[in-house]
Amino acid sequence: IIFFALAFADMANAVPIGEIAESKGSSTIKRDKEAYTGEVGLGLQMNDNVVTGKGRLRLDFIDDTRVDITEHARLLIDDFVYDPNTGRGSLGLKATLGTVRYASGQIAKNSRQRVNIRTPSAKINVRGTDFIMVVDEIGGTMITLLPSCDISGSCVTGEIMVENDNGFVIMNQAFQSTIVKQSWTPPLK
Fold first, then answer.
1. In sequence order, what are the residues at sequence separation of 6 or more whose Cβ sits closer than 8 angstroms to the Cβ of residue 147?
2. Please, where are the H alpha helices in 21-135?
3. What is the DSSP letter of 39?
4. CA distance 187 to 122
5. Phi and psi for 31 in degrees, rounded to 5?
6. Alpha-carbon dihedral of residues 83, 84, 85, 88, nearest 10 degrees?
7. Distance from C-alpha of 175 to C-alpha of 50, rounded to nearest angstrom
8. pLDDT tens digit string along 128-164?
9. Which H helix or E strand runs over 2?
10. Residues 103 and 66: beta-carbon distance below 8 Å
11. What DSSP state is assigned to residue 14?
12. With b meaning 16 or more CB within 10 Å and e meaning fewer, what string describes 22-40?
């Protein structure tokens, strides 16, 4: 019995995997049976459900991954494991509605096969880059590859593979886009 009490105490005091870096308008972080207002500085944990109303959030993860979420969006932090000593780990997100921009951190640079982002109609395998996805009310998804630019203006473009059970496309040029209308239709070339 003591073991279970200690295990639950550890879970309640879990080390954050990131935090809300910017917040405008209304948003909520749903964790277990609790709901928290999406305020700057709130720590993020695995299995958090991020829901925006008339609001926007920027999530900064401890591996330098950045996720921007616009109004009326839903995102689940499925998986996040990171070893700062090696820069390796795994990251899984599920976007079910709205617009989400993803910018790669150390996990995508050092553990490319371990970053997977899902929508109701597609899975996106990230290979160290930035992209934006828009998920509509019926689960259709549009994904656009973006260049990654630093503060000096130097830009590079990585690569993503968008797939489902009926096909895939690989995008490796800035501003390439694909649309996946449903999970049973292949991504458009």
1. 130, 155, 156, 157, 174
2. 106-110
3. -
4. 8
5. -135, 120
6. 50
7. 27
8. 789 999 999 999 999 999 988 878 888 888 899 999 9
9. helix 2-12
10. yes
11. P
12. ebeeebebebeeeeeebee
Report the candidate in 120, 137, 42 with the shortest Cα–Cα distance to residue 76. 120
Could you tell me if 93 and 118 are in contact, meaning their C-beta atoms sit under 8 angstroms apart?
yes
How far is Cα 60 from Cα 34, in angstroms, rounded to an integer? 21
Beta bridge partners of 169: 162
To which residue do tokens 């996946």 refer? 180
Q: Supply the pTM of this predicted model.
A: 0.87
Looking up tokens 């040029």 gives 173
Distance, C-alpha 34 to centroid of its chain: 21
Measured CA to CA, the distance from residue 170 to residue 166 in angstroms comes to 14
Decide if 162 contacts 180 (C-beta within 8 A).
yes
Residues in the chain: 189
* Contact assessment for residue 49 and residue 27, using Cβ atoms and an 8 Å cutoff: no
